[in-house]
From TrEMBL:
Protein's name according to its UniProt entry: ATPase F0F1
Key words of the record: Membrane, Transmembrane, Transmembrane helix
Record-linked Pfam families: ATPase_gene1
Species name: Roseivirga thermotolerans
Chain segments annotated as transmembrane: 16-35, 47-65
C-alpha cells in the first residue's frame, strides 16, 4: 500500500479564504481610518471615508491579482 506524503502546497481553501479575509480587513481598516480622519477635521462631509475605502479596495484588489496563479 503506497504511503501518502504530506503535500508541500498549502490547502487551496485556506489560501483563498485568507485572500478574502485580507480583502475585507484591508478595506475595513482603511474605511475606519477615513472615518477617524473625518472626525478629526470635522468638515461635515465623508470625503476621507470615501477616499480611504477606494484606496483600500484598490490596494486589496491589486494584492489579490498578484497572488492568483498565472496559468
Amino acid at each position: 500500500m503506497p504511503e501518502k506524503r504530506p503535500s508541500k502546497e498549502p490547502n487551496q481553501y485556506l489560501k483563498y479564504s485568507q485572500l478574502g479575509l485580507q480583502l475585507f480587513v484591508t478595506i475595513g481598516i482603511c474605511g475606519w481610518l477615513g472615518y477617524k480622519m473625518d472626525e478629526w477635521w470635522n468638515d461635515g462631509r465623508s470625503l476621507f471615508v470615501i477616499l480611504m475605502v477606494l484606496v483600500g479596495a484598490t490596494g486589496a484588489i491589486y494584492q489579490l491579482y498578484r497572488s492568483l496563479p498565472k496559468d
